[in-house]
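Listing S7. Sequence submitted for prediction.
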Amino acid sequence: MKTDYIYELKMKVRDYECDSQGIVNNANYQHYTEHTRHEFLESRGIKFSTLQEQGIVPVVARIVLEYKTSLKGGDMFYSRLNVKKEGIRYIFQQDIYRAEDEKLCVKAVVECVCIVNGRLKTHEIFDKILIPNS
């Protein structure tokens, strides 16, 4: 794993994620980044089902994707992330690299917020994601 990321997930492109040109459909990159965030949170002991039961709903407020190189069916890739807190927002810097040659495919910035019992606010449970290996 690159040392400037705090989390990495290796995945494989499935054929049905590709369009008629044989490359990954652009919308699937959002699925990849979301799956990576969920797996990252679970690695920090945070499960979405538990959050829901507690009235805590993390949501994406904004996402920006910058496409660099296309992935194709069967490609292995790494989805890597960093996260920082700005006010009540958690900012995820997520990059996707083709495993074969470490070519950058997508750069994403994902801003997330929490709705706690129907109100927009921060929650201490998410602060633990900022602590490496917590």
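Caption to Listing S7: primary sequence and predicted structure tokens for the chain studied. The longest helix spans residues 26-43. The two ends are 18 Å apart (CA to CA).
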